[in-house]
Amino acid sequence: MGWLVKALVASILLSLGFEITESAPESALVTKLPGFNGSFPSKHYAGYVAIYKERNKNLWYYFVESERNASGDPVVLWLNGGPGCSSMDGFIYEHGPFNFDPTKTKSQLLHLNRFSWSKVSNIIYLDSPVGVGYSYSKDKSDYNTNDTKTASDSYAFLVEWFKMFPEFQSNPLFISGESYAGIYVPTLASEVNNKNVTKPLINLKGYLVGNGVTDPVFDGNALVPFAHGMGLISNELFEETKAECKGQYFNEAIKSDKCAHFLEKVSEGLRGLNVYNILEPCYHETSTSSFDIGSLPSSFHKLGETERPLRVRKRMFGRAWPFDAVVRPGIVPSWPQLLANSTASYSDDRVATAWLNDPAVRQAVHAKKETEIGRWVLCTDQVGYAHDAGSMIEYHRNLTLSGYRALIFSGDHDMCVPYTGSEAWTKSMGYKVVDEWRPWMSNDQVAGFTQGYDNNLTFLTVKGSGHTVPEYKPHEALDFYSRFLAGEKI
């Protein structure tokens, strides 16, 4: 009966104008993964999607079907930021189907993640832009890119992907991501909104952005009030800085030497802190050239549980908004002076690096060999990236006024893109408050605070979380994620 059902579904899709291709996803099926012993709770697929007629650009994805109801649950596209960081960051360290426990033997590295976002949704992890992660181009000039090209390429990916997976074309689509994906998500959603006029239509319903870069002024002015509110700088220094800078801390607004002097004092006072979570210690990088998956010490805690690894990524500091020049990988800090010379801006991403460069893993996920496209790294330095889209506020305005639902969430202990900036710009939209500031609950505890606006815009904080919310607070993240996708009140 299976073939008859598939034939009937194909007939209906064709009658509705959906395109059915011969490139069935069975060739992309992932049947096993090194480090995991057991059955997958849902189907997994991975591979490349070649975009445009030239087929030079090849974007790699990992697709996890929903463990609940793949045919009816939303499809969610996940994008990590950088710019230049692989979305397998989210797969391994945040909300993927597995937790990675390097205290176990190499053959038992992976175990199922009870807080995986695939519990309630189909989810695509996309390495974007081209040149990031396993994605590659036959034309190396493609590795010089920008916001506009990245959005266009990701839209082209979605069009081709839905042709490969026609059974998901009618599912609701949500676009999600964090950090610099605060640029990726609204620009891509806008591409879908603007170009989605011919069949098969992409059924975009909304988007989610976590601790996302949004606007140079709001993001740039966020850190000083955040540092004061968190007790990281004295009240005297805050009042002096505020008075001298007239409440404007964004670097292009700095016009006096005294203002610059006080901002430097703030910066000095914050050195040595973990910029991605002020509550956590910092990891100082050591050589990993001979690293083996099984060699991590027992102090490297399991992911997805109460205790977390001390994982602070190597990021780019010292670049100012707006980008009028090519920038290199790393989260764009909201306050460029912050920790500019800190020795703590390093990462312990050895688990992901070792696992994703294992030849058996690359073969299992249908990725090109290291000899063909190079070594997988969390954040690549081969992509030259220019920020050309400007502030995202008008993008958000156009999208929400077009009927798309938006959730802007922030870990409230992130100092890289502080919640104070996200709270301020969402308020600046001028929408009517329809759900006044209140706590939201998870596991019968206050998990953070939220405020809802007209036009389906919601701002939400996650109490005690750092920059990568699903990594720090996996249970709470799955709760708000599930409710948002279902259209329920958080």
TrEMBL record:
Entries under InterPro entries matching the protein: AB_hydrolase_fold, Peptidase_S10, Ser_caboxypep_his_AS, Ser_caboxypep_ser_AS
Localization: Secreted
Gene3D superfamilies attached to this UniProt entry: 3.40.50.12670, alpha/beta hydrolase
EC number: 3.4.16.-
Signal peptide positions on this chain: 1-23
Main location as per UniProt: secreted
GO biological process: proteolysis; secondary metabolic process
GO CC term (a single one): extracellular region
One Pfam family it belongs to: Peptidase_S10
Molecular function via GO: acyltransferase activity, transferring groups other than amino-acyl groups; serine-type carboxypeptidase activity
Top-rank taxon, per record: Eukaryota
Keywords: Carboxypeptidase, Disulfide bond, Glycoprotein, Hydrolase, Protease, Secreted, Signal, Zymogen
EC class (word): hydrolase
Function per UniProt: Probable carboxypeptidase.
Database matches in PANTHER family: SERINE CARBOXYPEPTIDASE-LIKE 21, SERINE PROTEASE FAMILY S10 SERINE CARBOXYPEPTIDASE
Family under the similarity heading: Belongs to the peptidase S10 family.
Descriptive protein name: Carboxypeptidase
Organism this protein belongs to: Eutrema salsugineum
